[in-house]
Design brief:
Elements (H helix, E strand, L loop, with lengths): L11 H10 L9 E10 L7 E10 L4 E6 L8 H23 L3 E5 L11 H7 L59 E2 L4 H9 L3 E7 L4 H4 L4 H6 L3 E10 L12 H15 L3 E2 L2 H4 L13 E7 L5 H13 L5 E6 L19 E6 L6 H12 L4 E4 L23 H6 L17 E5 L17 E2 L15 E8 L6 E9 L2 E6 L10 H14 L16
Parallel strand pairs: 3-4, 3-6, 4-5, 6-7, 7-8, 9-10, 9-11, 11-12, 12-17
Antiparallel strand pairs: 1-2, 13-14, 13-15, 15-16, 16-17
Length: 533
């Protein structure tokens, strides 16, 4: 069969046959994607709640759209970031392709080098389909659906000094990205026609730039969402044209995050490349913000929801970069992407009775042996300890983690607070009143939602910050303290119930602990409450 016949000579039935031939015949396991969205909070105008969810997509019904990863750009900085990102993106494409996902390369205005290739003809031969919403060459910001972007990109977004001269030097897609025989190439509505011919309803968008082409092109987010496709943006495989000397006067990389957040609020969820590579999410080398890695693996206290929300509400706006590592839902002892610890400046730990793969637990040990800081909450006291039995083959436990690293002595807990029942409350001990971690906390006792852990006696080299009491129970128990491990700053609190994250004293203490661990001044202002973001 001649796949190079002109489109006008190929019947619709023959085209569908041609298109089907490139689809892998062997069924593949569903893609498991960890998606992040921002949903409006009822009754709180302007407030959004971060929602983490799992998507299971059929690879045969999924396409990856590579948006405008050009070989050159008029902005030197933009071109350098594309070149830096491209090797990781190529690994993602190879992994997706191996799973049976269709790869559609979309280097806009650069199709001439690909004329006559099977990949180009594959897109050209897709039968045109009618659409209820027109597929335009460009879909501009929709004021009926979204507010203005959170960055001022009116100058074009060049962050270089001196600013680069505008132009259009791109000639093709950057050659770092391999184009396989089964891929497709287009820069138009052909992408959607090809998806429709293949029965593809799921779209993963990656490429540049998030505030411009990634939103506006006919094959990209706005237009694919309006066609009813299920769309996600791979947020660590994109960049933004933003000049940090323009409002809101944040770093280039924070500006990129703000645009991603805009997309999560008004258009579609986002994922990271970890879902395909198992590696830590990609980060640009020039992104020198302090890097906080959150390791989350527990089934009881919903920190897989509360901690990412806390990070986005409290840490990211204050100039920190946050990577969230979740335990795999199919293997609760596996933490994909934990190699992010190699570049971490602080580890925030919320894990309960998991025995990670031996090499993953070794990453944690190596991190702490380097004298790097740790903030542990709630079940971190028994993060790597089993109640009984042995770890699964290839996994490892660390039952001494609590006394060895945290300096605690977890022995269970009192009854949980309840209406009309036991009350649990905490207070700052007088000797710690001037410690940075308790700055901004009330002088008097405050109620908490966590049941009171039995943590005493503490190691003699700990510094006690706060005590807690459960009414009718004795004795009082430590609820927050610090110590040093291998020269690194360690903070632990037995609090961390979902309700605690709604309490200003707890949020303030956790925020302070992160900055203290990083050896930075704790923020002077009160912590930002979710209702204010």
């Amino acid at each position: 069969m001649n796949t190079c016949l002109p489109a006008r000579l190929v019947t619709a039935g023959l085209v569908l046959c041609l298109l089907a031939r490139a689809v892998p015949a062997v069924a593949s396991e569903p893609l498991l994607l960890h998606a992040r969205s921002r949903l409006p909070v009822a009754g709180m105008p302007g407030a959004f709640a971060i929602v983490e969810s799992e998507l299971r997509w059929d690879p045969a019904q999924t396409a990856v759209v590579v948006c405008d990863m050009w070989d050159q750009h008029w902005c030197r900085g933009a071109a350098a970031r594309v070149a830096e990102m491209a090797p990781r993106m190529n690994e993602v494409l190879k992994a997706a392709r191996a799973r049976g996902v269709l790869i559609i390369h979309c280097p806009s205005e650069c199709l001439k080098p690909y004329a006559g290739t099977p990949q180009r003809q594959r897109a050209q031969n897709a039968p045109v389909v009618a659409t209820e919403v027109p597929l335009e060459r460009w879909r501009r910001l929709d004021p009926q659906r979204e507010p203005p972007l959170p960055i001022d990109d009116s100058d074009g977004g060049c962050d270089c000094e001196p600013a680069c001269k505008h132009g259009a030097p791109w000639t093709r897609q950057i050659e770092t990205l391999e184009i396989a025989a089964e891929d497709a190439i287009t820069d138009s509505a052909e992408a959607f026609y090809l998806m429709r011919a293949r029965g593809i309803t799921n779209v993963i968008v990656m490429g540049v730039h998030a505030n411009i082409c990634v939103l506006g092109r006919p094959f990209s987010i706005r237009q694919m969402v309006l066609q009813g496709q299920n769309v996600v943006l791979m947020r660590d495989m994109t960049d933004t044209m933003y000049n940090s000397r323009r409002p809101p006067y944040v770093s280039h990389f924070r500006g990129n995050e703000l645009v991603v957040e805009h997309i999560e609020k008004y258009w579609c969820p986002t994922i990271t490349s970890t879902d395909f590579t198992g590696l830590a999410p990609f980060a640009f080398a020039a992104d020198d913000r302090p890097h906080v890695v959150m390791m989350i693996g527990e089934d009881e206290y919903h920190t897989w929801e509360t901690l990412p929300a806390f990070a986005q509400e409290e840490l990211a706006p204050r100039g920190l970069r946050v990577t969230t590592i979740h335990a795999s839902p199919s293997d609760k002892n596996h933490f994909p992407g934990l190699s992010a610890l190699d570049s971490a400046d602080l580890l925030l730990l919320s894990v309960r009775r998991r025995t990670p793969r031996a090499q993953e637990l070794e990453l944690v040990r190596r991190y702490l042996q380097q004298g790097k800081p740790l903030v542990g909450i709630r079940t971190a006291s028994h993060a790597f300890a089993l109640r009984d039995g042995q770890p699964p083959e290839g996994c490892a436990a660390w039952p001494e983690f609590d006394p060895e690293v945290l300096g605690g002595n977890y022995r269970g807990h009192h009854e949980a607070p309840q209406a009309g029942g036991p009350r649990t409350f905490a207070w700052v001990v007088p000797a710690a009143a001037d410690h940075p971690i308790v700055a901004g906390l009330p002088a008097e006792e405050f109620d908490v939602c966590s049941s009171l852990y039995l943590t005493s006696p503490l190691a003699p080299d700990t510094t006690l910050l706060a005590m807690g009491q459960c009414t009718g129970q004795t004795p009082d128990e430590p609820v927050a303290w610090t110590r040093s491990y291998q020269g690194g700053r360690i903070f632990y609190t037995s609090l961390g119930h979902p309700g605690d994250f709604q309490l200003q004293p707890f949020r303030r203490m956790l925020l302070n602990a992160v900055f203290w661990g990083l050896k930075r001044e704790v923020p002077e202002k009160e912590a930002v409450h979710p209702a204010a973001t």
